[in-house]
Amino acid sequence: MQFLLTAINAKFIHSNPAIYSLRAYAGEKLQPYIDLAEYTINNKMDEILNDLYKRHPNAIGFSCYIWNWTLIQELIVELPKLLPETDIWLGGPEVSFEASGILREYPMVKGIMVGEGEETFRDVMAYYVGNGRPEIGSKYHSFGDIPGLVMKERENRKRNLADLNELPFFYDRLLAHASMNMECQSFDNRILYYETSRGCPFKCAYCLSSIDRQMRYRDVKTVKRELKFFLSQKIPQVKLIDRTFNCRRERAMEIWRYLAENDNGVTNFHFEVAGELIGEEELALFKTMRPGLIQLEIGVQTTNWDTLKAVCRNTDIAHIGRAVGIIRDYGNIHIHLDLIAGLPFEGYESFKKSFNDVYVMRPYQLQLGFLKVLKGTVIREKAKEYGIVYHDKPPYEVLYTKWISYDQIRKLKQIEEMLELYYNSSQFMYTLPALQQAFASPFDLFEKLAEYYDEKGYFTSSPARSYRYQVLLEFAICYTGLRKDLLKELLTFDYYLRENAKSRPAFCGDLSRHWDEMCIFYQKEERSPRYLGNYSGYRARQMMKMTHMEAFYYDVWDSGRGTELRRHHSPRFVLFDYEKRNPVTGQAQSQVVELPKSI
Questions:
Q1: HEC profile for 161-177?
Q2: Contacts (Cβ under 8 Å, ≥6 apart) of 414
Q3: How far apart are CA 366 and CA 340, in angstroms?
Q4: How many of the other CB atoms lie within 10 Å of CB of 139?
Q5: To which CATH superfamily is domain 184-404 assigned?
Q6: CATH 3.40.50.280 in the chain, residues?
Q7: SS3 of the chain: helix, strand, coil, percent, to 5
Q8: What are the Cα distances from residue 401, in Å, to 86, 387, 410?
Q9: What does each C-alpha distance from 491 to 96, 499, 505, 578 come to in angstroms?
Q10: Angle (CA) 553 557 560, round 5°
């Protein structure tokens, strides 16, 4: 007997903790009969089908979500043609709320594991393996008796929620034997997911987490021990999937203190938090943390009070704004804020206000998302009442509502793309503030930029990353009234903050007249370092290749500080050091340097 737990992730860097947890909870006696397989939605269906066929399992279980359900539907239709003796099982949020209907539509599926699956899957495996194995044995006489299953013939009784303290920690097993286990090697360059709680105390109408409001917590001592494992392994990033990590503030503070006290200087921990619960004590602790130790994601979603009421959110926008502003000024924590377009009572102009309200909080990333009308949510039940029309297929994204038209949604989609390319990329952190001064609001800037892209046909033929700087220059010349030489210097500064480019963009100034001075600078740094002490042992020519120097007539590094950028008569020289990067923004260290006239 071999059961293949199968995950199809949205991206390669993602992993699927659900299938790891199912196998770990099954226990040592059953684990030899359980294999794991992970793919991405970028794999072709036939590629996955071929790999599943080669494995020839007795049973396959698919972990189903909105991002992979369409692909899984194709697979479960084709698999029985190649593996007619293989049982097909489904589980996950995408199939838990309409399980009986899915079984009618796909009669080749043996059954669906509804809700949390650890105990249910263990019992399924015990039934498969236990026949004739008294040391394993199943306490159930058929699949129809196992709680948490929906079968074609009947819907079994519901399964009680699991005690989180009984769930084993699975990463030690997965990572400790990476040299012997091929599936463990796949964790290289991938995000690890970890949970310390399940449930959510809030009841947001659009969110699946609102269905499970019974909070369950993993013991803090256990959490600390498991976090210590991540720290000892120097995992680059651990993303906590607790729906609202700080809903119990003292517990959150204890864990954050532990991370601060045991920081390894490498690992980054990502938390989803409620911004209105961040108080003075949290702010004081955050201030002391190493840059890059943690990052925070806060779902603001909207600043429209009627909308907040309709979706059952009691949000203190002013409090969030103050907390985010203070953390942003610390400069040591990556702040990610979310907005949702297409919510009830939010039209285009209202969303514009929400966008501007959140943008001025200065998050490092502002995600403009679109309402997903998910199965099992209140918003799906009230979709007709609110005039919400959405795609029939996952991810069930909004098309239009009573308050916002499809044309306006299309426009917001284009604005979202501009936001991703020019704001969330962190590649234009000094150019954008200067451009914003020419527009009535940040939203107006991105709206006009989207119109420019549309007019030029760039949405269908997207410019390469390096050429986006040139596109922004052309746009700014047309619509901002800023001096061309200033715009070029702003873009040059942004460009070299990100990378030590081998080829020099056309918009950058001519450095040939300063070449001799720059050579003397590096020769002096080789003999008696003042700025590049971390390059000890390197020759001047090597340092020139590993760093970059640029001449600026404007103090472009002051962009966004409210001061007018005036042109100097002579240039100031900036040194970009790529060995020293800001762990929050990823930007190279930059500093104004003095060039010697002679060695």
A1: CCCHHHCCCCHHHHHHC
A2: 450, 453, 454, 459
A3: 11
A4: 10
A5: tm_1862 like domain (3.80.30.20)
A6: 3-159
A7: 45, 15, 40
A8: 44, 5, 13
A9: 50, 13, 10, 18
A10: 120
Beta bridge partners of 341: 370
Please choose, from the candidates 302, 294, 303, 277, the residue with its C-alpha nearest in 3D space to the C-alpha of residue 202: 277
Please, what is the end-to-end C-alpha distance for the chain in angstroms? 77
pLDDT, tens digit (0-9, with 9 covering 90-100), for 524-554: 999 999 999 999 999 999 999 999 999 999 9
Q: Where are the alpha helices (DSSP H) in 272-316?
A: 280-287, 305-310
Q: Is residue 161 a contact partner of residue 215, using CB atoms and an 8 Å limit?
A: no
Q: Which amino acid is at 36?
A: L
Distance CA 74, CA 87 (A): 16
pLDDT at position 326, please?
A: 98
CA distance 176 to 440: 55
Cβ neighbors of 457 (< 8 A, separation 6 or more) are: none
Q: Check residue 184 and give its pLDDT.
A: 44
How many other CB atoms are there within 10 angstroms of residue 548's CB atom?
20
The confidence score (pLDDT) of residue 130 equals 83
Residue 430 is given by DSSP the state T
Alpha-carbon distance of 322 to 496, in angstroms, equals 32
The residue count for the chain: 599
Question: According to the 3-state scheme, what is the secondary structure of 8-57?
Answer: EECCCCCCCHHHHHHHHHHCCCCHHHEEEEEEECCCCHHHHHHHHHHHCC
Q: How far apart are CA 430 and CA 547, in angstroms?
A: 20
Which residues of the chain carry a pLDDT beneath 70? 132-135, 137, 176-186, 598-599
Distance between CA 55 and CA 61 in Å, rounded?
13
Write out the DSSP string of 450-463. Answer: HHHHHHHTTTTSPP
The beta-strand segments (E) located in 52-156 are: 59-63, 87-91, 111-113, 149-151
Question: What's the CA gap between 275 and 321, in Å, rounded?
Answer: 8
Q: Where in the chain is the domain with CATH 3.80.30.20?
A: 184-404
Q: Name the class of domain 3-159.
A: alpha beta
Angle at 339 between CA 400 and CA 64, to 5 degrees: 75
Per-residue tokens: 284: 């004081």
pLDDT of residue 134: 59
Q: What is the CA radius of gyration of the chain?
A: 27
